[in-house]
Amino acid sequence: MRDILSKSFVFTALSFVLVRVFSYIAEDAQVAANVPQIAVYFGTKGRYEEVNPHLKDNILAVSKSLLNPPSADCTAVHLTAIIRHGTRYPTKKNVKRMKDLYSLIKREAKSTEQWMEDIKTNWKMWYTDDMDGQLVNKGKDDHKHLAIRLAKYFPSLLSKENLRNNRIKFITSSKHRCVDSSLAFQQGLYSHYDITDMGFNHEVNDTLMRFFDQCRRFVEDVENNKTALREVDLFKSSAEMKRVQEKIADRLEVPYSRLTTDLTEAAFFLCAYDFAIKSENSPWCQLFDDSDALVLEYKNDLKQYWKRGYGYDINRKSSCTLFHDIFRRLDQAVNEIRSGNVTEVATIQVGHAETLLPLLTLMDFFKDEVPLTSSNFAVQEQRTFRTSQTVPYAANLAFLLYKCPEGPRLQLLLNEKALDFNNISDPVPLYEVVREQYKALLNGCDFQTECELLNLNCSKCSEL
Ligand SMILES: *[C@@H]1O[C@H](CO)[C@@H](O)[C@H](O)[C@H]1NC(C)=O
Ligand SMILES: *[C@@H]1O[C@H](CO)[C@@H](O)[C@H](O)[C@H]1NC(C)=O
Ligand SMILES: *[C@@H]1O[C@H](CO)[C@@H](O)[C@H](O)[C@H]1NC(C)=O
Ligand SMILES: *[C@@H]1O[C@H](CO)[C@@H](O)[C@H](O)[C@H]1NC(C)=O
Ligand SMILES: *[C@@H]1O[C@H](CO)[C@@H](O)[C@H](O)[C@H]1NC(C)=O
């Protein structure tokens, strides 16, 4: 009898375990089915959840390891966060390319695969010209949810009392998608604290958040310079890109000559946007395998590298004003720690990928030994300059100042993960150590000097 009982107990326990295991597998498979396999390669069109996969299960989850101060005697006293706007619609230029591709396929693609049937009959061209880069509902949620998570991480800073006493400052780029993101962030905080009687406030400051438009040297030498992105153009006609185009043409069954790089990329963007905006694993995604996506990801990274990253020195230098402004806020908070009264406890600044990349580059992060070029795709497989990881929608760089008995300390968080300073072994170093590290930039890096155009009339100025 005892034998039977224990056997049946074992059986029950085992089947319980099995049911659990199978239900996990089933859930995983279900989640996976909604996420395109290539979603981790979408670069600046990537979803924040791909960078922090634990958010797929619970969008308000905070990771426990980040919740603790550097030591029990430290308290957080100031936060400056530089945040990219949330998920947005495509621009006019990309909408046009996607429409061109769609009509080409409707007319000429001969493939009889199921996904092709889906594209031709079930999928509708829903992108329109007037969407032009605006924030989508998912983009509002990106910021609402980020606000709630940051309030959970730093309850003493992003607190109800600090909100009510205007000790939290909101600054944004003038672009609609950024202003709307800033409002959504504030809504997130209000909903977290059940605040219903407060209005929204923000200060538009393009000097800080769109410095790239105002740096004439950058605009002239890089932005409007047809040869500045030569490496990107060369990569468009590289063997790697050609191979991808041929594979896509083969899958669609259209002649190779019909599928340009722009149209190939448009198919990739259709997959990326359908997913980022509607959380759909669209039939367009079936056109690509991982190796194709890696090539298209590299093409996007090459562009960012030469236009916003280490490619040209002016890219990083254009962010000097923002860099100085951040350290001015930190200096102010450090001085106020002594008097025991930090007046501005948090600054939430919303901008663009084009705001974050030059700043990260100025501060020497994600610098590979070998530059990214059109000819070293294979060498760069393990590169650290990878926008899919660093600047997805709602990407954020947080400067977190702690008051500690031995002096103030500074921690950096990129997308809610600790970002270690180069050449400093302490993960949360003393503020003075960080200032020492960036001494040259703090004493120099003058926007006017870096960004004004050289006067051709003045070739002998240095001798005067
Ligand atoms: C923007 O910020 C800069 C740097 O802090 C400041 O000098 C400037 O006055 C601000 N502009 C506006 C319009 O607030
Ligand atoms: C454009 O970029 C190329 C490549 O960096 C550079 O040699 C050239 O001087 C730039 N032209 C202008 C007008 O800045
Ligand atoms: C802290 O500073 C604010 C603004 O300057 C002031 O209103 C408040 O009285 C100060 N509090 C203390 C405790 O000094
Ligand atoms: C870090 O050290 C390396 C070599 O040790 C040096 O090339 C680099 O400039 C240093 N970076 C900073 C930010 O000081
Ligand atoms: C020199 O400067 C003057 C006035 O700013 C301008 O009109 C002229 O075109 C410049 N000459 C050259 C060669 O840049």
Structure write-up:
- The protein is built from 21 helices and seven strands.
- It has 464 residues and is α/β, with parallel strands linked by helices.
- It has a seven-stranded mixed beta sheet with strand order 3-2-4-1-5-6-7.
- α5 (137-153) crosses α7.
- The longest helix is centred in the first third of the chain and has 33 residues, at 2-34.
Give structural attributes.
464 residues, alpha/beta, Rossmann fold, disordered N terminus, binds 2-acetamido-2-deoxy-beta-D-glucopyranose
User: What does the radius of gyration come to?
Assistant: 25 Å
| Average residue pLDDT | 91
The chain-level structural class is alpha/beta
CATH class of the domain at 64-89 and 144-212 and 304-463: Alpha Beta
> Would you tell me which CATH topology of the domain at 64-89 and 144-212 and 304-463 applies?
Rossmann fold
Helix content: 40-55%
User: Outline, from the CA principal axes?
Assistant: globular
Number of helical regions: 21
End-to-end Cα distance: 107 Å
Beta-strand content bin: 5-15%
Q: Could you name the ranges where pLDDT drops below 50 across 5 or more consecutive residues?
A: 1-30
Largest sheet, described in full? Answer: 7 strands, mixed
Q: Which architecture of the domain at 64-89 and 144-212 and 304-463 per CATH?
A: 3-Layer(aba) Sandwich
Counting DSSP E segments of at least 2 residues, the number of strands comes to: 7
CATH homologous superfamily of the domain at 64-89 and 144-212 and 304-463? Phosphoglycerate mutase-like
